[in-house]
Amino acid sequence: MTPIDLTHISVADNHCHGLYHTQKPKDATAWHRLFTESDDPGMSREHVATTLFYRRLIREMATFLACEPREEAVLAARQQYTDRDLIRKFLHAANFAVLFVDKGYPPTELTLPDNELSDLAGCRVAPMLRVEILMQHLIAEHNTLASVIEALQAALNDVRGQGYVALKSIVAYRTGLNIRTWDTGDAEAAFAQARHEVQEKGSLRLAHKPLLDTLLHVTFTEAARQELPIQFHTGYGDTDADMLLANPLHLRAVLEQRKYRAMPVVILHECYPYTRQAAYLAAVYENVYLDLSYGIPLLGYNEMIEFTRAAFDVAPFSKLLYSSDGVGVPEIHWMSALDGRRILGQVLGERVASGELSTIEAEAAAVAVLRDNAVRLYKP
Ligand SMILES: [Zn+2]
Q1: What share of the chain is helix, strand, coil (3-state, %, to 5)?
Q2: Which residues pair with 129 in a beta bridge?
Q3: Which residue blocks in 227-270 are alpha helix, DSSP H?
């Protein structure tokens, strides 16, 4: 089997996050915290450095920064650069065509503005609107459910006109992907609880299922009307998410509704470990797309090969989209771009060896997944 060389292809990262103004963690534990979904302090202190993801990161960084492949040497080499130079160096080397940025996290005051990120990366930056944050603001501002719904419809009336190319939902982190249709009474009761939380705490973490589900249906109606893609966090995440309810098969009730078929649904993070289930959905619903992230979830090489094989074997490759899910520091965006090209090159090389694709078809599939499918879908 000969791997296909994809190193020259520019990449559209269809789901990533902003980069911190300040790139220098105060110590090794703070640095480790960037590479785990766990909040347990002992994980960052003791265990993160023994994941295959982290070992691969240190070795790749050492090669790139021309230093010893040891954590201390890599962190010292990284210190030599200004924050801006560090970001520019990694992002330029990754060769991006577009960065699709989820504006919901980290908080915007901690991250570079889009125009600065665009300058440093040397590519377009296309922002995406996280709907739960918008909903939380509207619930805090309005004292009836009817007025929240009206305000949400107004806020989502022309999403592209506001500069966003897609919506993003973290309902899997809050109440699960089993989004239902609720009676008005249930939604009103949940709204009253949410308003009570706003009054008690001064802020809201929207995890009131009948309310969130109801507002999501309002969102889907607006998205379908505008043929606007929506990304869903699915699968592997921090422990806020109940992984049983992060299984994409729970989206069936939404996907079965004809009135939402004009809304492209992007299932994020290869839905790890539910990649096969998500790839099945992309195979049977025209409007479902599957994101393949090579940064986060923080996996070893073999699992990335396996999910890539599963995705290609089940879903049409016109439905597969490359991403990093990189957050905060440029290393994840960068290493994911390297790994994504390498893994797609290997898996597509295998498909040529099996006689399923010609070399020319395999190269075209790689360009589609790495860049062109996302550009066609989001129209950045
Ligand atoms: Zn993300």
Answers
A1: 55, 10, 30
A2: 167
A3: 252-255
